[in-house]
Amino acid sequence: LEGKVGLTEDSAAHLGKVKRPLRVVDQWMYHSRLYAAASLAITRENLELIQLNSFGCGLDAVTTDQVEEILSQHDKHYTCLKIDEVSNLGAAKIRIRSFKAAVEDRAARAKIAEQAAATTGSRIIFTKEMKKTNTILCPQFSPIHFKFIEGAFRSEGYNLVLLQKADQDAVNEGIKYVNNDACYPSIMVVGQLIQALKSGKYDLNSTSVAITKTGGGCRATNYISLLRKALQDSGFGKIPVISANIAGLEKNPGFQITPRLWRKALMGLTYGDLLMRVLHRVRPYEAIRGSANALFGKWVEICNEHLIHADSGSFKKYIQQIVRDFDQLKISNIKKPRVGVVGEILVKYNPQANNSVVQVLEDEGAEAIVPDMMDFFIYCAYDLTYKHHTLDGSRRQYFSGKVFISLLEFCRKEMKAALERSERFDPPPSIYTQAERASRILSLGRHTGEGWLLTAEMIGLIEHGAPNIVCVQPFACLPNHVTGKGMIKDLRRHYPQANIAAIDYDPGASEVNQLNRIKLMLSIAFKNANHLSKKFLLNLSSQSNQTITGSLV
Predict the structure, then answer these.
(1) Same domain assignment for residues 105 and 139
(2) Rounded distance between C-alpha atoms, residue 296 and residue 277, angstroms
């Protein structure tokens, strides 16, 4: 028993009181002692029971079920070892070690249950005092965009720490504490936070965690409840959880999104969209290797410094200078296939979630195009106006949606103007253009998750020279199955040149299989690009011959 004290059933049975009647007929003294010993074990935290029985003993078969029932009704583990003259005791030792591990795990769960009981029904509020003292851990969502979101919150007095990446250890933590039927992003987000809390880097008495909460039919609505359960199960039930949302779903006195913070966050989001757009456009063609990333890094520092005060004049100036600098970056005069990346919002923007799909595309000789993140928030606002016109939405929702659309479009107005004036870049389309595109194929009433916006983004890419698309989603993501995978057939009917690969991401998904599917899509993209190049050269040659013939005549 390795350090444990062993007692026989006859040495302790007289201390146990059996609750009768039993399910079985109690007519043998040895059996009565077993039932009494089991009844004693359920009253003592430091007492467990292991039953030894003889192989093939019919009478023991009666006792095993009854003893197990007595123990299991009080959350006690039951282990029965069959002993005979040819049994391998090595197997018995393994069973006993497993039993001890199960007992220790039960003790740990009991401790967690006590913590959960103390917090069940009343979440821990993030107070104004906590704002001054607490470190707020935030999971990584989009490395480009969240560089600026972190700076915006820090400038407003929040000690926000953005967790940099979700490695395999973080994913394993998520698998441990989140129902594995939940979507991949929830496993990654929860795993990141649990890993950080276990790291020892933070004082748990002055640490909080923040997570977004969307609302609606998507599984993401339950991220915060999944996180709270995971925190309780992992022994961190007293950590305050901040719900970062704009719908007022949960309120915390110490966490207020003020107009000034809104302003900074929207500026940061605009910086993120712009830098992502121009970086992805020029990096595959850079004449000097690393020059695009160096220019990107320079502007990240400048923009973060600007967000401390966030004045409008500097914002407009920096937007124009970013476009100008990337317009003037030296690039090679080559042609590469353009590949759009669309899908579930976290998997689309987080390289750890999509196995660095942008880098894979660039390494394989393509140019990646990732639609702006702000489009998603504008789409959410547009849905409010649609609900008023078509469903049961109120006029208040309608006006809220219109105001929010105007606010976001105003924030990126200078960005769109600068991109329109540029030589290399295209501005993002308006939400009304996006809605018109999607309405050709599906109903705009599809609001769950990325909804109709996902289809609209694919149409926009196809119509603007990027018929090659990687549609990324968590495994079993219902919204993407409908408006992503489900639309591929219709898109190919409307746009025969569409070359779309739908890729599922999950903790157990094969990265090799994902890579092979992307490469298959790219092989078609390169084949189509070569075909178009040859067709262009033939047309050019034909035009030249016609010109020469005309001159001779």
Answers:
(1) no
(2) 11
Label each residue of 442-458 as H, E or C. Answer: CCCCCCCCCHHHHHHHH
Residue 503 belongs to domain with CATH number: 3.40.50
Could you please report the per-residue DSSP string of 331-379? B------EEEEEESHHHHH-TTTTTSHHHHHHHTT-EEE---SHHHHHH
Please state, in angstroms and rounded to a whole number, the distance separating the CA atoms of residues 122 and 136: 20
What residues have CB less than 8 Å from 283, skipping those under 6 apart? 292, 293, 362
Q: Encode pLDDT of 152-177 as tens digits.
A: 888 888 999 999 877 888 899 998 88
Contact 196, 184 (CB under 8 A): no
Same structural domain, 92 and 178: no
Largest interatomic CA distance in the chain: 123
Whether the CB-CB separation of 397 and 384 falls below 8 Å is answered with: yes
- Report the DSSP pairing between strands 207-212 and 159-162: unpaired
- Per DSSP, the residues of 415-427 read HHHHHHHSSS--P
User: Which has the closest alpha carbon to 238: 135, 129, 112, 128?
Assistant: 112
Burial class for 66, CB neighbours closer than 10 Å (0-12, 13-18, 19+) = middle
- 407 domain residue, yes or no: no
Same domain (yes/no): 14, 98: yes
Mean pLDDT, rounded, of the chain: 86
Burial class (CB in 10 A: 0-12, 13-18, 19+), 23: exposed
Provide the sign of the torsion angle of the four alpha carbons 8, 14, 17, 20, taken in this order. Answer: positive
Q: What residue spans of 42-127 are helical by DSSP H? A: 58-72, 89-119
In contact, 207 and 199? CB cutoff 8 Å: no
Q: Are residues 155 and 64 in the same domain?
A: no
User: How far is the C-alpha of 391 from the C-alpha of 414, rounded, in Å?
Assistant: 34
> What is the number of domains present in the chain?
3
* Segments of 180-315 assigned E as strands: 207-212, 241-244
User: How many angstroms separate the CA atoms of 547 and 10, rounded?
Assistant: 111
Domain residues for the domain of 454 are 336-371+428-541
Last residue of a domain, one of 229, 255, 281: 255
Q: Are residues 148 and 204 in the same domain?
A: yes
How large is the angle between the packed helices 413-421 and 395-411, nearest 10 degrees? 50
Contacts of 254-258 spanning 24+ positions with Cβ under 8 A: 254/125, 254/126, 254/127, 254/128, 254/129, 254/130, 254/131, 254/134, 255/126, 255/131, 255/158, 255/210, 258/156
Give the confidence band of 551 by pLDDT, cuts at 50, 70, 90.
Answer: very low
pLDDT band, very low/low/confident/very high, at 301 (cuts 50, 70, 90): very high
- Taking only the tens place, the pLDDT of each residue in 402-456 is 999 999 999 999 999 999 999 999 999 999 999 999 999 999 998 888 899 999 9
Residue type, 245: N
**Mean pLDDT value across residues 15-28:** 82
Quick one: 496 exposed, middle or buried, by C-beta within 10 A (0-12, 13-18, 19+)?
Answer: exposed
Q: CB count, 10 Å around CB of 449?
A: 27
